Amino acid sequence: MEAAQPDTVIAPSLLAADFARLAEAGARVADDVDWLHVDVMDNHFVPNLTIGPPVVKSLKAATDVPLDCHLMIEDPERWAVGYAELGAYNVTFHAEASADPVTLAKRLRAAGAKAGLAIDRDTPVEEYLDLLPEFDTLLIMTIKAGFGGQSFIPEMLEKVRTARNHARGGHLELRIEVDGGIADDTIAAAAEAGADSFVAGTAVFGADDPAEACRRLRALAEAAR
Ligand code: DX5
Ligand code: ZN
Description:
Elements: E1 9-12, H1 22-29, E2 36-41, H2 53-62, E3 67-72, H3 76-85, E4 90-94, H4 101-110, E5 114-119, E6 137-141, H5 157-168, E7 175-179, H6 187-193, E8 197-200, H7 202-205, H8 210-224
Parallel strand pairs: 1-8, 2-3, 3-4, 4-5, 5-6, 6-7, 7-8
Helix pairs in contact: 3-4, 6-8
């Protein structure tokens, strides 16, 4: 049986970890996190290039922490299900990259993963609200997708509020995840707006003690929710 998911999800982004030591980075925070966030970038949907299926496969073998794969790639119809088949817990693809998000969500669920829809900085959330029952996760970018270490954009929280209000009307189990610039000084505002899942790269792996940084982020989020 699938383990119950906690109310607050802390998902450190391995993008900010040492890429030669990804498994060690995951192990350092494993006791204090809910998911490991894996940023897959293809140098087309975003200019950056990171990791793909072979690395996800190795990470899956190296950790028991559920993998939260964030696909910043073109043509997710071609690639996303492969991440589900590798055992990713949650597979999130970008609305801007998908011709038929609902069909892809169904395929991801059929392959055993949670299905996530990501909305980049310049994309309004409104046109996707009616699709949300088909999804387990809505990821709202709080930066422009592509690189870690950018500043949180507070205006993005309006999308979180809109999505949370909509979800209250009938999709209570929808996870609303924020990604980009989440740190000690921004996580409370995101939690107050209605986010329940928090990606943090720099704030975790840039800290002297990444596990302690995760515990602090969780405490701040829980106090604000
Ligand atoms: C960027 C990625 C983020 C990134 C966040 O496109 O989706 O997950 O790693 O990094 P920080 O927390 O440094 O903004
Ligand atoms: Zn991400």
